[in-house]
Amino acid sequence: MRIHSSLQKRRLAYLPRLPEILRSLTRLVPLFEAENHENELPLPVVQLFSKTIDQQLLRFVEGENKTHRPLNVGVVFSGGQASGGHNVISGLFDALKLLNPESKVFGFLNGPAGIINNQSMEITAEILKNFRNLGGFDLIGSGRTKIESPDQFQAALKAVQGLHLDGLLIIGGDDSNTNAAFLAEYFLAKGCKTCVVGIPKTIDGDLKNESIEVSFGFDTACKTFSQTIGSILTDCLSAKKYYFFIKLMGRSASHITLECALQTHPNLTFIGEEIAAQQKTLKDIVRQITDMICLRAEKKKNYGVILIPEGLIEFIPEVKTLIQELNTLLASSLPHLKEIEARPKASDKIEYIIKKLSIPSQECFSLLTQDIQLQLLMGRDPHGNVQVAKIETERLLIALVSQALAQRKKTGTYVGNFSAQPLFYGYEGRSCLPSNFDSQYCYALGHVAALLVNAKLTGYMSCVTDLSLPVEQWGIGATPLIKMMGMEERNGELKPVIQKSLVNLQGKPFAIFSQERDKWILEDLYCDPGPIQFFGARDETDQIPLTLEYEYSRHTHLSFSHTS
Amino acid sequence: MRIHSSLQKRRLAYLPRLPEILRSLTRLVPLFEAENHENELPLPVVQLFSKTIDQQLLRFVEGENKTHRPLNVGVVFSGGQASGGHNVISGLFDALKLLNPESKVFGFLNGPAGIINNQSMEITAEILKNFRNLGGFDLIGSGRTKIESPDQFQAALKAVQGLHLDGLLIIGGDDSNTNAAFLAEYFLAKGCKTCVVGIPKTIDGDLKNESIEVSFGFDTACKTFSQTIGSILTDCLSAKKYYFFIKLMGRSASHITLECALQTHPNLTFIGEEIAAQQKTLKDIVRQITDMICLRAEKKKNYGVILIPEGLIEFIPEVKTLIQELNTLLASSLPHLKEIEARPKASDKIEYIIKKLSIPSQECFSLLTQDIQLQLLMGRDPHGNVQVAKIETERLLIALVSQALAQRKKTGTYVGNFSAQPLFYGYEGRSCLPSNFDSQYCYALGHVAALLVNAKLTGYMSCVTDLSLPVEQWGIGATPLIKMMGMEERNGELKPVIQKSLVNLQGKPFAIFSQERDKWILEDLYCDPGPIQFFGARDETDQIPLTLEYEYSRHTHLSFSHTS
C-alpha cells in the first residue's frame, strides 16, 4: 500500500479540464471521413486484416440524445511506464459511468500476461480515487509479454469473453498497438464482440503520425529530464570544471533529446536521425565533440554539456552494420553465443567474435572500449536485438574524446583541462506525477476510448487533436490502427508493424533547433526550466511540449476540432 | 548570458518572507551571551586564535534607532554549489542598502582564487535582479582553491584592503569556514578592518552543530533527490522487474540519505554512521541486501530500491583500513604511485600494490571488482585522499550481490530473478531553483551577515535559528567560528578544523527512521513527494526538511527567537 505525499493528495483532487465537445458526451456519434487507404497499405497488411481493412478515419460530432446500455471494458498497460496512464483509466471510467452508471471497468494485471493468464480486478470508484492524476502504472502494473502465439490469442479470447467485455483498451507503444490491431482482427474473426482500442503511450515520442500529434508521457518525461538538464547546466556554469555527457532515454528516435535541447540549450546535441542522414562515423562524432572542447578551451571555457540520444549508437552507419552483424552472429540458432558464454575471460570472448566480423566491423569493434564490447555481446531484447539501452554511449564517448584530446595536447592544438561526468536519464522520467498536459490529454483519450467502445468500433486508436489549442478546443476522433502499418524485419522475418516515427529533419522543430544551435556551442545560453508546477498561472502549469508547439501552432495538421 | 525560463522569471519576482525581528533592521544591536569556551577548545586552537578566542555567542535585539555609515562588503562562493547562494547575496545587499544606500557589495570571481588574484566585480541592483531566488553560483562562480600559504594570506589582505572592504562573506562548508576563521585572525593581527563572516553552505548537511540547525542547500537537494527517488519507486512498483541501487551524494555523512529515506521509504537504506558503529564488513552489507532480496522473492517481489550514501564505502571498517593504507602508500613522497602509473596494464597495477597491503586489506581489496580497484588507485582529492565520489559503490554492490545470489540459487535458497540498475544522484541537486525554505533561510542569513559587518564583528558565522517555526518567528544571531573547531589529520598533520557533523544515531530523526524501516523491507510503503512546488498552499511550498522537523519541532535546541 502506497503512502501518498502531500502533493500527491493535492493532485488526487485535481480536475482535468476537458475538450468542450466532451460535455455533450451522451449525444456524440461518429462521423466517418470517406477515404480509401487500402491501396496505400502493403499487400500483407491488406491480406492479414481482411475484417478491419475498410475502417475509416472518424471524428465525433453531436447527434441526438439517447440512452446507452451498460458496458464492460477491460484495460491493460503494455510496456514501459509513461505519466498519465492512470488518467486514461479515470477518463474511461468517468465517461462509461456517464453513459450508463452500470458500466464496469476491469484492469488486467501486470501487462498483457494478465490477459493471457486471465488475471484481472474490477476498478471501482473507491480504488480509482487513489490514483487519479498520479504517475506510474501501479494501479494494475505493466509488463512486456506479447500476445503472439495461437495459444495466447485463444487465451485472450477466453479472458475477454469470460468478463463479457464490450471493449479492451490496450495502452501501449508501437508494438503493443500492433498487437491491438491483430487482436481486433482475431476477435472479429471469432465473432467476439469485444472492441479493441489502442491508446498512444510512450515517453519516447515515436508513436506519432498524421492522426497522433504526440504520445502521452512524452511531455512529463521531457519536462522532468529538462528540469535535471537545466539544473546541471546551471551547476556546470557555476563550477566551470566539468563536461557532462548526458544520455537520454528514447530508444531509436531522438524526439526526447530534441525536445530537451530546445528547452535547455546545451552546448552540443546529437540527433540520431541527422547522424544517419549525414552518414557520420563514430570518429566524426568524436571529432565534432573534440573540436567543440578545443574551441571552448580557447575561450577559457573548460566546461559544457553534451546531449546524447540513447539510440545514437545504432544510427551511426558503421555501428549499425556492426550491430546487424552481431545480431545475426549471436542468433540463438547459431553456436556463437554459447561459445562466448563458455569463455570466462572477457578478452577471449572478444577475440572469438571479432574474427567472425567483416573487416570494417572489426575496425569499428576495435575502436570500442572493452566494457562496451562486452555490453554488445550481452543479452538480447525480446525482439532478439542488441540492447541499445545497455550500451553506455556516454562513457564510450568520454573515453574516446579523452584519447583524442590527449593527442591534440601533444600537438599543441589543445590547452585546456578535460574532466567529464557521464550521466544517463531514463527511468526518472517514466513514472513522475503527470504534467497538467499529460493529465488532461490522457483524461480525454480515456473518454474517447469509451465513445469508441460505445459505438462498437474496433481496431481504432483513440485520438485527441489540436493539442496546441486551449484544452476546451481540442478535437476528438479515432484512426484505424492498420492505417499506421508498414512492413519491418523482426527476428529475421518481415512483419506488419505500426511504424515508429523518427525525428523529421524537414520539420519545423528540427529547423528551429538547427537554426539556434550554432550559438549554443560557444555562448552559454543555458536555460533551466525548473520543476513542473501544478498550481498558479495556467501559462506556467499547462505548457505543451515545444516540439508540439512549433509543429502545430500555426497550421493544424489533421484537425478534429469542432472550432476549426 | 543565461536565458531565463518562464518559471525562473516568476521566481525572480518572489519576495522571501523575513523573520519579524529583521523588520527593525536599523535598530538591531548584538547582545552577547556571557560564556567562556576557551577551556573547552583544543590547546592549538587557543594558541592559533589569540585575537578571536574571546568572542562570545550573540543574538540581535532591538536597540535605539541610529544612522549607519556606508559599508563595502565582499562575497565569495567556496566549494560545491548549494541552492540559495544567490539569496545570501541578495539578503546581504538589501540589508546593507537599508542600513545605508551608499553601501556596496563586491563579488570575488570563481571562488577564493578570485580573492588571491584580486578579481572581483561590483554587484549592483541591476545585476542582482537577474539572480534573486535562482539556483547555482553563476552570478560570480565558485571554486575550490584554498587560502593557505603565507603568500595567499598576504594577497587576500591586499585584495580586501584594495576594495576598502568592511566585511568579507565566505559562503562555504566546513573547510571554507575553517579558512574564514584563519582569515579573521590574520586580518586582526594585521590591523585590517575587514570583518570575516562565514555562511553555512553545503548540500551534504554536515555543517551543523548546536548553533547551526542546518546548512543551506540541504533542503533543495534532498527534495530534488526525493522527487527522483519517489518517481523511481513508483516506476519500480509498476514494472516489478528491477532492483535500483541508488547512490546519493553527501561525502562522509549520511544526512542526505537519511532525509531522503524518511521522505520516500525505500526498501533498504544504509546509513554510514551505523555501519561504522556496528563494525559491519562489506560481506555483512552484501548479505543484508541478499537476504532482503531472497525474502522479497519468496513474496514474488523481484524488485525494490536500495539507498546507498556516497560515504558508505569508507565507513566500513575493513575498507576504511584499506583506504588508509592506500592513502599512505600512494602519498606523493613515496615511489608507489609512479610505479603504478608506469604500468599500462590494469592487472599489473593491481598486482604491484596488492603485495604492499596488510593481509586483511589484501583480502578486502581482492573482494572488489577490477573497476573499483582501479578507481581506488586513481587520483586523490585536494586533501590527498582517495576520491570517495569516484568509487562506484552502487555498481560494486550489484556485482557482489549478483555473485551471492547466484550462489544461493545453486543451493536452492533463492528462486527469484535479479535485474539491477545502478543510479547515482549528486550534481542534479546542487544548483536547482531553491525551495522556499532555502530562499528564505539564505535571504535571512544574508541580512544577519550585514548586521555582523555593521557591528564590526569578525570570525563569526551567521546564524538563523528556530527554523521549524514559521519564518516570522525565526531567531537571528551568530556563533564564533572557533567554537566549532577540533583537531583533525590533514595530509598527515594534525590541524584545527571545523568539525564535520555526522548523523547522530541517538537523535530523533534516526530513531524515527529505525523504528519505521523494518516495515519498508517487505511492504512497499513507497512515497513519492513529487517536484518542488512554488505556488499555492504554504504548507506545500514552505515545507522544511523532515530531519529538521523531527529534531527541532518539540524543543528548540539553541534559540535566538524573540518569541521564545
UniProtKB/TrEMBL annotation, chains A, B:
Mg(2+) binds at D174. Its main location: cytoplasm. The active site is at D204 (proton acceptor). It is found in: Cytoplasm. Non-allosteric. It catalyses: beta-D-fructose 6-phosphate + diphosphate = beta-D-fructose 1,6-bisphosphate + phosphate + H(+). GO terms for biological process: fructose 6-phosphate metabolic process; response to glucose. InterPro entries: ATP_PFK, PfpB_PPi_PFK, Phosphofructokinase_dom, PKF_sf. This is Pyrophosphate--fructose 6-phosphate 1-phosphotransferase.
